[in-house]
Structures are given as structure tokens and as C-alpha cells.
Design goal:
Blueprint lengths: L7 E2 L4 E2 L3 E6 L9 H17 L2 E8 L3 E8 L5 H19 L18 E4 L6 H9 L15
Antiparallel strand pairs: 1-2, 3-5, 3-6, 4-5
Helix pairs in contact: 1-2
Length: 147
């Protein structure tokens, strides 16, 4: 991404905050097929327009998703996760009601998640490459070291 070092500006602040967020499908079910991925991508575009969140990269494997994003400092990482998970789950269930049969309790995403901050200079490209390679067969990938 060309402007990864760009300072974002609000009315009363400026920031360079980037989060690497990972959240799994409920019960680690293998449900992220091409149709679901398209719903998630379309929904993410709407989330960007409505909230002060910018999705910088997304990568999906069959049972979890990685998101590299930035958001206004007034939004905690937990709030970003809650917004993303609730809106995408609602849209998935609305457009693909057959998915509910695979899950119990009406939730698409697991309650847990992983979040880390990402620096523009130190490990940005490593994390970005890792996210972009999600879902590719392991034999196509070289070892990716995050630390």
C-alpha cells in the first residue's frame, strides 16, 4: 500500500494507527467460500463509508479472516472488531440464510479475536504479505516470519 505512512487527520487529532486483527468463524467452521468472501468484501466497503475505519488489506482462509486496518483513535480495537463482526454477520445471514444451519446460536463469528498494532517501518510489509497470502496452499508459500 503506497500511503501506509500517511498521517490521517480528524477535526482535533492526527494519527498513524494500524491494527492486524484476526477473527475466526464460530466453531472454526470452514464456511468462508467465494460467495461469503464477496459478501464480506462488499460489506467492508460500506463499513468504511459509515465509520471512521479504513480497511487496508483483508485475507481469508476457510475458517478465519485477517484484517489490516486503521481507525480514528476514538475507536478502540475492540469496537472495530464489534462493528466489523456484527455488520458482516448480519449481511451474511441476510444474503445466505443457508449458513444458519451450519451454526448454533445465530452467531457467525467466534467471540474471540487477535489484535496487534503494526508499525509502518518495522514489520508492516511482513504482516501485509502474510495477510495477502491467506488461503493459498502451504506448498506455494515460503516460510513467513512475523517476529
Amino acid at each position: 500500500m503506497e500511503d501506509k505512512g500517511r498521517v490521517r487527520k480528524g477535526y482535533h487529532c492526527a494519527w498513524q494507527i494500524h491494527y492486524h486483527i484476526v477473527f475466526p468463524v464460530k466453531y472454526r467452521k470452514v464456511l468462508l467460500d467465494k460467495g461469503i468472501i464477496e459478501i464480506i468484501k462488499e460489506t467492508a466497503m460500506g463499513i468504511q463509508e459509515r465509520y471512521e475505519i479504513e480497511i487496508e488489506a483483508m485475507g481469508m482462509d476457510m475458517d478465519h479472516i485477517h484484517v489490516l486496518c486503521t481507525g480514528h483513535p476514538k475507536l478502540s480495537p475492540g469496537q472495530i472488531v464489534r462493528i466489523f463482526k456484527s455488520i458482516t454477520a448480519r449481511e451474511i445471514f441476510r444474503k445466505r440464510s443457508d449458513i444458519k444451519k451450519e451454526l448454533w446460536g445465530g452467531e457467525f463469528w467466534s467471540d474471540g479475536y487477535y489484535v496487534a498494532t503494526v508499525g509502518e517501518k518495522a514489520n508492516w510489509e511482513t504482516v501485509e504479505k502474510y495477510i495477502e497470502r491467506q488461503g493459498k496452499p502451504k506448498e506455494e508459500l515460503k516460510q513467513i516470519r512475523l517476529f
